[in-house]
Design goal:
Blueprint: H1 26-37, E1 48-53, H2 56-63, H3 71-74, E2 77-84, H4 91-108, E3 112-117, H5 121-131, E4 137-146, H6 168-171
Helix pairs in contact: 1-4
Bound molecules: flavin mononucleotide.
Length: 180
């Protein structure tokens, strides 16, 4: 169906999991990191650290630290997200904001990105050792960054995770909506 929006939708970049070998230019990386650094956070605590992984061996190890983290091996660059776990209940929200800022900046510069969750806790410990992150810093997520490779033809059958988004009216409510 054609979009009936009067203007171009302001949607964030979709996930990219297949990458070209082309490296991320140093200037571009600095601009991407700067966007994350300037994300807002509760009480301006900035409870994040961004860990740059360029080395293919390290990226390969990271890719084994999550059940769905394989794309960290094929991207030319990975940015690990360490969170200060002593920073209070807003910290994960804050890191999510920084992550979105990083990914939007990368998208604006023509790069694709996709986060990966590192788990279980033993893998988070291992990721912390690879990153050189010590408590209270825990590296629970990493973002693959690179130029997108041409997409593969769509697979037959149902994808492992749902694609697309819930319809507008399923996610937007007026305050005080009735229990259904
Ligand atoms: C917190 C978080 C963790 C994610 N972890 C993974 C992951 O481990 N592996 C993966 O392939 N994608 C991961 N993703 C990407 C999501 O699968 C993706 O954003 C979602 O399916 C929507 O994809 P789309 O933008 O292409 O529609 C993660 C996204 C978020 C926000």
């Amino acid at each position: 169906m054609w979009c009936t929006c009067p203007v171009r939708p302001l949607r964030p970049p979709r996930a990219t999991r297949r990458f070209l070998a082309e490296p991320v230019a140093d200037d571009d990386l600095e601009r991407i990191l700067d966007a994350g650094r300037w994300a807002g956070s509760a009480r301006n605590r900035q409870p994040w650290r961004f860990v740059v992984f360029r080395d293919a061996g390290l990226r390969g190890e990271l890719a084994r630290l999550g059940a769905y983290a394989q794309h960290l091996a094929s991207a030319p660059l990975v940015i690990g997200l360490a969170v200060d776990e002593d920073s209070g209940s807003d910290a994960h929200f804050d890191v999510g904001r920084a992550a979105q800022a990083l990914m939007s900046a990368a998208g604006a510069l023509g790069y694709g990105t996709c986060p990966a969750t590192l788990f279980p806790e033993a893998n988070v410990n291992r990721a912390g050792r690879l990153a050189g992150a010590h408590p209270p810093w825990r590296m629970r997520w990493a973002i693959a960054v690179g130029r997108a490779a041409p997409p593969l033809p769509p697979r037959r059958g149902r994808p492992a995770i749902a694609t697309g988004r819930l319809p507008r009216d399923a996610v937007v409510r007026e305050a005080g909506w009735p229990r259904s």
